Amino acid sequence: MKNIVAISLSVLFALLIVEVGLRAFDPLELQPHASQEQANVPLENSTFYFCEGGPNQLLPHPELYSREAPDQTYFEFLNDIVSFIETNEHGFRGEFDPQGVDDRIVVLGDSFIRGTLADETETIPALLSQWSQDAHFVNLGTGGHGTLQHLLTYREFKDRIPHETVLLFVFIGNDLVDNIDFQAWQDDSGSDLHEPTVTQRMKQMLVKLHIGKLLQRFSSSYLGRTEYPSRPTEVEKELFMNSLGELSQTAEDQGARLFVFTLPEVAEFFPQGRVSYREDSIGYGNATRGLLKEAAEDNGFTYLPLKPVLESAAHELGVPTSELFGDPDHHMREIGNFAAARAVAESLQDNGVGVFSPDAQFTDRTSFEPSNVECP
Fold first, then answer.
1. Distance between CA atoms of 273 and 41, rounded to whole angstroms?
2. Is 148 in contact with 183 (CB distance < 8 Å)?
3. 3-state secondary structure (DSSP) of residue 52
4. Is 14 helix (H, G, I), strand (E, B) or coil?
5. Global model pTM greater than 0.90
6. Which of the 8 DSSP states describes residue 127?
7. Hey, is 332 helix, strand or coil?
8. How far apart are alpha carbons 182 and 202 in whole angstroms?
9. DSSP state of 315
10. Which of 58, 174, 275, 309 could form a disulfide with 343 if both were Cys (CB 3.0 to 4.6 A apart)?
């Protein structure tokens, strides 16, 4: 018994030494985001500071797995910035039913449309609303959702929002994989994935330590436990194509036109394997865009890939395309949202959907200092 206690204490002491060493020298760049270190306020989950609402950013949803909590305002600390976020009565960003605007356009998507790394004024739907002369873009974006959940979200709100146009943004990086995870949750109706098990709680505690982050990185990088295939699997294709067909038909039954846009993942602009668990991110992106082109031909919706748009915008700015994305959080920065929104506005106007007056150059309309955050 004494030997077991002695060994346990020795192991704990050794782990403590390793943890101190990792924190002091940080050879694997495991430090928290710069903004989190600079924060002048206490953070929930190392990321959020709530002015109203909290402490949970996301809530369980009986049909969609999750959605942001309604009626909350908070600051989100990621990378070297802090973003201000406000959710409406339905748990989305932006106004849901603004006064004095008759025409509304529904916008579906994941965290890129929700606007991670963007303030309220610089999300893609917010920019389109600011530039439109006659329409408001209703943001129905929720982080972590795939196209199956986008379809269900549209069905939930299609009769509450008077509209003639629907925009769907597909994120190449994980929307197809999210569909598989969501279907698995749907099929296991007796489970409650929102309530973590004891093992999951221990993992959540462990990854807060540098040792835990090191083990997590080793598991992902060297054991390949979370590596995704470099081409969409047959299951991914089936779920994706079916969801696009159903969304197109549902919009048509509603008397609305569907426009689909694809957002690339940042790994398509880096050397292979640098920021993706796929060996060939470019190949996966091209294959997914090929599926969308096929779906557009079969279902009659308008499709525009936004990868060339971002490459062109970066060329004009004289920077690598990867700089339109954040680091280490790889959502698009506000300048990336601006480039994408300009292309979307041009596409809509060319197709007779409204009139737009985009800004000639990107303007950071709203910004906050991580070291000086105050609730409005």
1. 36
2. yes
3. strand
4. helix
5. no
6. H
7. strand
8. 24
9. H
10. 309
Q: How many Å apart are CA 154 and CA 129, to the nearest integer?
A: 19
**Terminal Cα distance for the chain, rounded:** 58
pLDDT tens digits for range 98-151: 888 889 999 999 999 999 999 999 999 999 999 999 999 999 999 999 999 999
> How does pLDDT run across 224-267, given as a tens digit for each residue?
445 688 999 999 999 999 999 999 999 999 999 999 999 999 99
User: Alpha-carbon distance 132 to 359, whole Å?
Assistant: 11
Burial letters 26-43, b for 16+ CB under 10 A, else e: eeeebeebebbeebebeb
**Residue 101 corresponds to which tokens in the numbers above?**
């605007």
CA of 149: how far to CAs of 21, 145, 287, in Å? 43, 6, 22
SS3 content of the chain, % helix, strand, coil (to 5): 45, 15, 40
Q: What amino acid is encoded at 103 in this protein?
A: D
Q: Pull the structure tokens for residue 153.
A: 């979200």
Kind plus residue range of the DSSP H or E element containing 169: strand 163-171
Report d(CA 237, CA 325) in Å as an integer: 27
